[in-house]
């Protein structure tokens, strides 16, 4: 009896959820690496420290925005995974594509934080967000076409 590889590969939704949890945790942690403590040698007073912390506000805003965005997508993916009894190789690869978009988020966030006035940086960031949404929607579309 011939068995399709797609029918036996990638069936565990729990393993997919575990991989997803790990990748989201790392990506969300990497976001904070763009926030740097002010250099001690440049701070000589309380006022200078407050000014240096205020200068971090744009990067802190990008961090918060991206952290919350990844949180929203994590909740969305977990919701989808909770509705699956089983998976297959195709669905697993769609989720791998989604997780690729998750891993690129720290880069696009840092790019926009570094170059907030450049359209290319904004487009790269928003393309990353679009990619997250499109691939997560593809999972829903794939589910409607098949029984998973």
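Q: What amino acid sequence fits the structure above?
A:
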């Amino acid at each position: 009896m011939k068995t399709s590889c797609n029918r036996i590969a990638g069936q565990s939704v729990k393993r997919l959820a575990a991989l997803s949890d790990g990748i989201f945790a790392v990506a969300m942690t990497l976001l904070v690496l763009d926030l740097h403590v002010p250099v001690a040698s440049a701070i000589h007073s309380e006022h200078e420290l407050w000014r240096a912390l205020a200068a971090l506000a744009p990067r802190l805003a990008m961090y918060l925005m991206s952290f919350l965005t990844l949180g929203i997508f994590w909740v969305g993916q977990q919701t989808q995974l909770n509705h699956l009894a089983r998976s297959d190789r195709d669905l697993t690869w769609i989720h791998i594509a989604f997780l690729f978009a998750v891993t690129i988020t720290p880069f696009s966030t840092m790019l926009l934080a570094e170059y907030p006035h450049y359209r290319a940086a904004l487009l790269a960031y928003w393309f990353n967000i679009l990619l997250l949404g499109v691939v997560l929607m593809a999972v829903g579309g794939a589910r409607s076409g098949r029984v998973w």
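Q: And what stands out in the fold?
A: The chain has a mean pLDDT of 87.
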